[in-house]
Each structure stands twice: as structure tokens, then as C-alpha cells.
Amino acid sequence: MKKMLTLLLVLAVSGCASASQTHAYDWTIAFADTGQDGTMITWYDDAYQCIGTQMLKGKGLAGPAGSDAMIGYDAQYAYILPQTDTPRNPDDCGIVRMSLQNGTIDILQTESYSNLLLAVNDKAVVIEQRSDDLQYYRTVLPKDGSEASILKDGRFGMLYYALKDGWLVREGLPSLWVYAMNEHFRTYAEAEMGDDGSPVHFPTMDGWRMDGAKLLQYGNKAYIPCMKENRTYTKDADGYYQSSFEGYSYGLMELDINTLSYAVHEMDNRYFTDILPLSDNEILLLCVSVTMQTMDAESGQHYSYDRSPQKLVIYDTASQEFSDFETVYEPLQCVMSKDTLYIRDTKGIIHVIDIASHKERTSFHHTASITPSSWGIGTMMIVQDPMETLR
Fold first, then answer.
1. How much is the average pLDDT of 136-149?
2. Is the dihedral of CA 54, 27, 68, 94 positive or negative?
3. Predicted model pTM
4. How far is residue 139's CA from residue 148's CA, in Å, rounded to a whole number?
5. Rounded-to-integer distance, Cα 266 and Cα 32, Å
């Protein structure tokens, strides 16, 4: 598609690109491995035997850390937003849509801009993109068969998150605001975030801000990883100036989607890198402990960060308490089906965990059959019956 200069235009997304292919896989879990030439999709059955593969040339679905922030589900499909998208045919730019029923893949066409984030609910798929001249765009792909639209977003650094009946939007600059919107993107609540009540307030730095790429909704509460920058200020005749930087604090934000009031729950300053629904009142979080080291030099202070191995913790929304989810291996990625937790460890072994008992049923090894890029291979896991569709 050609790049659009108008504020609002109609996109045609009814057709499927050349990557479209009909399958008949009775699959349980799939892997998207991104390497030098694109992404290889590999499907496994319920005995965890490989039953098929498909190469998507020019589509980078998984980054070095295998980020799953680019994937969303509904009852019929998994939607995957490429982190890099340079197919041979420009008309193949867009979202990879995989059927949960049989693994069939097709492409929902979007602009050939840089992809930032994906949000999916029952009404639509929202894609955030940025053009080469740093203009931000929101593309909406409705699920009712109506035409898609792209809107040039005049506000900077917008992040969209899916709610059951609407959207939560975070604005990054020039100040930090959060908006609750209905399914038609009409704002019904808004609030400035980050103001911690101190006499010195820099909205883009001080105070808590939503930092995760996805959230979970439980009733009228949304849960999302958050962070804040810790600074101290000194006052002189000209006003306040920053006297020191003391690192970051991390937590889990509990946000009321009606009033946008929030509380932050912390656990030993752990940085939460992923969030998954474990049960009706439990959240599974992948996290690391972060410690800042400060060094003084002639050019000023320099900072470095020590990160612990990744761990899993459970947050109970009723008791508001954290507890460790113990493993004898270091978890790298997690994905949740309706009764199974899949944990990929740092050695590439997939641990199949029963959600109810937290016991390991079995494990298997997935090896990517693709040529590595300069940074290696990124891997994303996709499940056939995602837990997210129950929330």
C-alpha cells in the first residue's frame, strides 16, 4: 500500500496476501522462530510432535528476547504483529493472522510503517505504527466486516491496551496521561499520571507510569507492570534542580478502569517483564531483580545495572500478596492455554505445566530450523486455546 498523507482514510483488508495457505492441522502449540530470512512457523500436536512448518519470508515476528507483546488472541485467531516487516511483495506487509482451528495463516494488510504495538479485543485489532518522519498512526481493523481505518495520531508516544469493552490509552509526551475509551475510541475518563505529590514534578519522569506492553483485566481492574524514576532535587534561588538520580522502582499497577485511580504493588523491586492470567484471582509474572551501580567520573555519574536470572512469581488479586512460583530451571518465556502453562527455559526445553496443580506433566525440546541472523534466533510461542480468551 502507498503511504497516506491524509488524516483519515479507508484501507482494504479483505484480501489475503500470497503467504496465505490452508492447513488442516490439529495443533496444540506453535513456535514462530525468526532468523536471517524471516520467520519459520512450526506446529506441534497434543503429543508434542512436529506436524508442519511454514516459512514467512521477510517477516520478523520474534525479537531477540522472543517478546510476546506483539501477539493477541480472540476466540478464533492469533494475531501477530511483525517487529520487522520487509516481504518481497509490499502488499504482504501486515499482521499475521493464524486460525486457532486449523493453523491457516493469512495476512491482514497494513501500512509499511514501523510496527510498535498490538491490542486485540472482541471488536477490533488496533496497531500502533510510526513512519520514517516520526509521525504516529493508529490503524483499526474491525471484526464486524466493516472497513479498516488509519488515523494520524497528533499526540506523541501513544500506547493502546485492549479492554473487554474498549481501550486504555497512555500518552507519553509532553506529559503522562491515561485515557479510558469505549469501543468507538470516545474518552469517558482521563487522568494525569506520575504526580506523586512532591513539590517538584516532571510528568515524564517522576512518579509511577504504566510500562508494560500488555495488561490483564479482572472485572473493573486492569493490571499492568509499571515503573518510576527516583530523583532528588535541591532548591536554590533559581528554583529546583536535580541533585541526584537514584535508579528505578518497579511494581504492578492496579488501575480502576472507571475512575483511573490506581495503587502500585511492589515485590523487592522486581522488574516484571511479562504478565499472564493464571486463574480468576491469580496473575503470573515473569520478573528479574535489578540493582543499579553508580560510578563517578570526570564527565559525571555513570550507571550500570545488574540483573538476576529470571523468575516466576504469582500475585493474588484478593490478598494482594506475591509468592514465588518455584522452578529448578531459569524460565525465559511463558504462554498460557486454558489448562496448561508452557514455560520455555534458557536451554530451549519446553516445560508443560498443569495449571491447577502446578506440576510438570512432561517436557520437550524445540529446535528452530532457520538460519540465525546477526543477533541469533528469536522465538515466540503460540497456543491453540489461549487463557486470554476467558478473561
1. 89
2. positive
3. 0.87
4. 7
5. 33
